[in-house]
Amino acid sequence: MASLALVAPASASGGIQCDGGDGVSAYLATGHLPVLQVIGAHVEAGGAAWSTGPERGEGTPFVVGQAFADNQQVLVDFTDPNIEAILVGLRLRFDGSEDLPLTGMLTVGGNSFPVQCGEG
Q: Origin, by domain of life (predicted)?
């Protein structure tokens, strides 16, 4: 399933769903390309929510600042719409099988939350 994060046609055809318990979650809609393409996202943590658009859920607007994936990790930073500050960071590692699930950290401000992720 590593290919889920790495390849997918330009419509939302895959995704990564992360859960950290206690109101911590992240969903990334991904497209099929040779590189990681995050085409939408919704994140909740620390009593706040962020969203790339109302179709993804309610939340403070944010945009994908950068995204990278290979056969070991998925790294995504979300910024404010003016690209002035990183609001949310997601650092995930494959469990060794190059397959979902992934484990890692969701960072919001100075707080980090452990998450486990699977196909969403």
A: Bacteria
Q: What is the rounded distance in angstroms from the CA atom of residue 93 to the CA atom of residue 65?
A: 19
Distance between CA atoms of residues 26 and 42, nearest Å: 6
Sign of CA dihedral 44, 50, 56, 62: negative
User: Which residue, 29, 66, 44, is CA-closest to 113?
Assistant: 44
For residue 99, pLDDT beyond 70: no
Residues 73 and 87: their CA atoms lie apart, in Å, by 20
Check if the beta carbon of residue 32 is closer than 8 Å to that of residue 7.
yes
Q: Is the peptide bond before 61 cis (omega within 30 degrees of 0)?
A: no
When divided into structural domains, the chain yields a total of 1
First to last CA, the chain: 11
Strand partners, 29: 15, 40
User: 1 pLDDT band (50/70/90 cuts)?
Assistant: very low
Residues pairing with 7 in the sheet: none
